[in-house]
Amino acid sequence: MGNISENLTIRPAVISDASVILGFVRELAVYEKLLHEVVATEALFAEYLFGDKPMAEVIIAEWDKKPVGFALFFYNFSTFLGRPGIYLEDLFVLTEMRGKGIGKALLTSLAHLTRERQCGRLEWSVLDWNEPAIQFYRSIGAVPMDDWTVQRLTGDALDALAGQHAT
Fold it and tell me: Which residues of 69-87 are buried (b: 16+ CB within 10 A; e: fewer)?
């Protein structure tokens, strides 16, 4: 982590950043036209990011000591590689701060963490309509996993399947 340039610093988030993280999540959701799906709260972030059993980590990008972006990530595991990986759930940089290398600095920091922690890969998903992000990811060497389709269970479908568990 540390200073990337004279103006830019990447640092691990701390519990007092919960409101900043929530603000970034809401702005990301607006950009992705998904604000109606955000139910996260500062309390949930405080518990699940900084509580007794943290489920994910966050790094914050600061420009002149002001938070301007974040990356939220957690471990996954590759049975083929036999080692953990890092899954980037969200990466966001304030609209007015884009084009300054902040997103790349966040990804560079995550790549460094991935290697430092002896993980086998860094991966993430991108919306298929987000052409600027897709082009950026290609420019740094990321490749699409075209043979894979993400599957998701939430809400009633998740509850129904969980209800079939024998106790």
Answer: bbbbbeeeeeeeeeebbbb
